[in-house]
Structures are given as structure tokens and as C-alpha cells.
Design a protein that fits this description.
Helix 3 links the parallel strand 3 (about 60-65) and strand 4. Helix 1 (about 20-30) runs parallel beside helix 2 (about 45-55) and helix 3 runs parallel beside helix 4. The protein has helices at about 20-30, 45-55, 70-80, 95-105, 125-135, 145-150, 155, 170-175, 185-200, 210-220, 230-255, and strands at about 10-15, 35, 60-65, 85-90, 140-145, 165, 205-210, 225-230. The radius of gyration is 20 Å and the shape is globular. It is α/β, with parallel strands linked by helices. The protein has an eight-stranded parallel beta barrel with strand order 1-2-3-4-5-6-7-8, surrounded by eight helices. About 45% of the residues lie in helices and about 15% in strands. The protein is built from eleven helices and eight strands.
Length: about 260
């Protein structure tokens, strides 16, 4: 299941909660993918197998963000069934090449070869089919998150095998000296430059947003892979909205009755 099959854009949240029910709920809500997070939060390879199974059962694309450029972690994420591996803190073309090499079998890379894994249906899939199809059915997403990567973006965009360039606005804001200020002009300017260069090269570009208006803004600029917030934040916002609305009603009713 590809990310952008017949679609101009795709939308999905980061998942930090360890219960795979949140993945199912995301699918029922209409999200296109989930980013199962191993960089931040409590998840590990044991817990995220359930997330991947839930995603595949409900036809939503499972993306796994590993915590670093680590060949073993990239291979493990793909072995247990991730459709895409998402890798943070890419700073140059060599970093990007390392990720592709770790994610792809020969001749595109040098991923560790094993068919006794979930991705190969635990050997039920003929090995000829598995190794020939794995490179086509798994993808690579890399994070561009700071000034070093920004300065090297032209070379990074030349690397074959990268499916999506993902701009991390929070880390970018820190690199710009304004941590957390994701809408600061210096952050927005650099993000726009990356989007323009990626679009010119025909490379899909993604970013993280926390509101529908922000999603629309970046979509209008050519961003196709929209990561919309995080499961814990989405739940908090929904709860806070309910509490505020009910408490406001109660306060106004009390004032009127008094």
C-alpha cells in the first residue's frame, strides 16, 4: 500500500500511546497513515508490532520512526512490517545514503538478509518473491531538521531511494535559535526554501502541523505528506474542548440563576 497512490496529499498522526486501538481509531477516522514513534515516548519494537498489525488490518499505512540512523533498527522496523521507515536528524547526503542502504536489499542497498520475519510472512512467502518485492513495497522518509541539513539540501535531494523529505519544524526552530517558535519568520523561510527545492526536483516533501489551517498553508505550497499532530495531543485537545465548553455553560447557567 503506497502513501500517495492516486492521492495529491496524505494525512496522518504520530503515535506515542502503546495501545494499537489508537491506530484502528485513526483508520476509522479516515487518516491515510500513522507514524509509530520509537524516537520519543514509551514504545519499543515489541509494542509496535501490534500497531503495525492494526494498521494493516484496517488498511492504513504503517510508518515507523526510528530514533536515529541505525542500520539494525531500520532493518528491524521493516522486518516486522513497516511500510515506510522514517529517520530523524539527517544532515547530509552521506546520512541519506546510509538510510537507503540500510532499508533496501541488493542492488539498491545492503539491508540485512533474513526471510524468517513477519514481513516475509514468517517464511510462508517464497524467498524469491520476498527479496524481489521488498524494495518496491517499502519506502524511506528522512528528516531535515536543522541548519546543517538546510545548507546541504541540494546534495541530499540528489540521493536516489528517498521517497519523502520530511521537514521537522520544532528541531528547525531550535537550530534557528528560537526553540518552539515554529511560526517564526526564520523557520518559515527555511522551510519554504526546502519545499521549493524539493518540488523542483520532483521529491515528495512532508512536514508536521498542529492545526487544519497550518495543514492548508503547507499544502498550498506543495507539501503532500502532512503529519497532523500526535495522538496524546489530539486526545488532550478534544478533552480540553469538552471540559471548557461544559464548564462555561455551567458557569453561565449559575450566574443567570443567581
Amino acid at each position: 500500500m503506497g502513501l500517495l497512490d492516486s492521492k495529491k496529499h496524505v494525512l496522518g498522526p504520530f503515535m506515542k500511546i502503546s495501545d494499537p486501538a489508537l491506530v484502528e481509531i485513526s483508520a476509522f477516522a479516515g487518516f491515510d497513515f500513522v507514524i509509530i514513534d520509537l524516537e520519543h515516548g514509551p514504545n519499543n519494537f515489541q509494542t509496535i508490532q501490534g500497531h503495525i498489525r492494526a494498521a494493516q488490518a484496517k488498511n492504513i499505512v504503517p510508518v515507523v520512526r526510528v530514533p536515529e540512523i541505525n542500520e539494525n533498527m531500520i532493518s528491524k522496523a521493516l522486518d516486522i512490517g513497516a511500510a515506510y521507515v522514517q529517520v530523524p536528524q539527517i544532515e547530509n547526503a552521506e546520512d541519506a545514503k546510509r538510510v537507503v542502504k540500510a532499508a533496501k536489499f541488493y542492488p539498491e542497498g545492503a539491508r540485512g538478509v533474513c526471510r524468517y520475519v513477519r514481513a516475509a510472512n514468517y517464511t510462508a512467502m517464497p524467498k524469491e518473491d520476498y527479496f524481489s518485492s521488498a524494495n518496491k513495497n517499502t519506502g524511506v522518509i528522512i528528516h531535515i531538521e536543522g541548519n546543517i541539513a538546510f545548507n546541504n539540501i541540494d546534495e541530499i535531494l540528489k540521493v536516489d531511494g528517498v521517497d519523502v523529505i520530511f521537514i521537522g519544524p520544532y528541531d528547525m526552530s531550535q537550530s534557528c535559535g528560537v526553540p518552539g517558535q515554529v511560526n517564526h519568520p526564520s523557520v518559515i523561510s527555511k522551510m519554504k526554501d526546502i519545499v521549493e527545492k524539493a518540488n523542483a526536483k520532483g521529491v515528495v516533501v512532508g512536514t508536521f502541523v498542529e492545526s487544519a489551517s497550518s495543514a492548508k498553508q503547507w499544502m498550498d505550497l506543495g507539501v503532500q505528506y502532512i503529519s497532523y499532530a500526535v495522538d496524546v495531543g489530539i486526545y488532550y485537545d478534544a478533552c480540553k474542548s469538552i471540559v471548557d465548553e461544559v464548564n462555561t455553560y455551567a458557569e453561565n447557567t449559575f450566574l443567570k440563576s443567581s
